[in-house]
Amino acid sequence: MIEIAAPPARILSKERLIPGQTSKLVIHAPHIARKALPGNFVILRIAPEGERIPLTIADTDTEAGTITIVYLVMGKTTAALEQLGEGDVILDLCGPLGKATHIEPIGTVICVGGGTGIAAMHHIAKGHHMAGNRVVAIVGARSENLLLFCDELESFCPELEVCTDDGSCGHKGFVTDILQQRLESDADIGEVVAVGPVPMMAAVARVARPFNVKTTVSLNSIMVDGMGMCGACRVTVGGETKFACVDGPEFDGLQVDFDELRKRLNAFKPQEAISYQEWKKSHGQ
Ligand SMILES: Cc1cc2nc3c(=O)[nH]c(=O)nc-3n(C[C@H](O)[C@H](O)[C@H](O)COP(=O)(O)OP(=O)(O)OC[C@H]3O[C@@H](n4cnc5c(N)ncnc54)[C@H](O)[C@@H]3O)c2cc1C
Ligand code: FES
């Protein structure tokens, strides 16, 4: 039997977008870069005994054979990932996983991104732009220093609306305030896409519902195998059980049971906190 070994996934560059909190890695992974489309994600493991975590592919460069990932340091594994730097190798990197974003010529698309979700939204917005759609981007963060990918989005979005909770940049308030205004003033919106924290995506769906506009959300359910076998990522969409890893991660936001998703995401909070504390202690933090 012939075995084809994937080349080691080496980190070519690392940029601390928000020091201590959010970083961007450009990883040499030509076998993934060749196939990855907007909406896809990877699952990676950085230590032999470590857990596997999903991260969205925020961009690709097929010529250079690279993928870009952006992560928020949340717990043990992302903190350990944060310790890696340029030249280091990711132990294993599996992808591209998940269904790619459904992109078709649809006119104007409003892409809404919140926090780290802006990076994933960027790849989807770029895909819509390449397909000839007019992309209006609405991005939100707690404060100006937590905004991501604004320059990149500005390069192809005719309009970029910025919102901050504290008013340090753009509109003081939530992305849904601007979304509501846009939906009221423009009857030709073909689709709304939202990527970000679960409460934000649920709020986007609530605002979009009365306008009867197609609304797509990218769900960050807990994943283990990413192959549709373990059942960890199950979500209820339109009353049916779906697996976010193989049926998604993108779903019709008007049909998602967000309350159930929220509960499932919180299921391992105590264990996650203990594991992070132990990791910090063992690393002198
Ligand atoms: C399809 C998909 C794409 C994602 N893309 C990104 C991304 O681009 N950038 C980013 O920062 N985060 C992304 N996430 C979330 C990321 O996987 C978690 O932040 C990461 O697993 C946290 O691991 P940890 O050990 O550092 O923290 P933990 O302490 O284990 O967990 C912290 C939080 O992360 C969530 N989480 C933990 N393990 C998983 C898991 N295996 N799968 C999903 N969520 C988990 C928990 O609900 C918890 O709220 C994505 C999740 C999914 C499902
Ligand atoms: S992660 Fe196992 S079924 Fe989706």
Task: Describe, in plain words, how this protein is organized in 3D.
This protein is an alpha/beta fold. The protein has two domains: 10-97, Beta Barrel (Elongation Factor Tu (Ef-tu), domain 3), CATH 2.40.30; 108-265, Nucleotide-binding domain of ferredoxin-NADP reductase (FNR) module (Rossmann fold), CATH 3.40.50.80. The protein has nine helices and 16 strands. The chain has helices at residues 30-33, 76-82, 117-130, 150-154, 175-185, 198-208, 244-247, 258-266, 269-282, and strands at residues 9-18, 22-28, 41-45, 53-61, 66-72, 89-90, 92-97, 108-114, 134-141, 159-164, 171-172, 189-195, 214-218, 234-237, 240-243, 250-252. It has a seven-stranded antiparallel sheet, sandwiched between helices. The protein has a seven-stranded mixed sheet with strand order 11-10-9-8-12-13-16, with helices on both faces. Strand 8, helix 3 (117-130) and strand 9 (134-141) form a beta-alpha-beta unit. Helix 5 packs parallel to helix 6 (198-208). The radius of gyration is 19 Å and the shape is globular. The chain starts with 8 loop residues before the first strand and ends with a helix. The model has no long low-confidence stretch (mean pLDDT 94). The structure holds flavin-adenine dinucleotide and FE2/S2 (inorganic) cluster (FES). Flavin-adenine dinucleotide binds next to strand 4, strand 5, helix 2, helix 3 and helix 9. FE2/S2 (inorganic) cluster is lined by residues 223-226, 228-233, 243, 245.
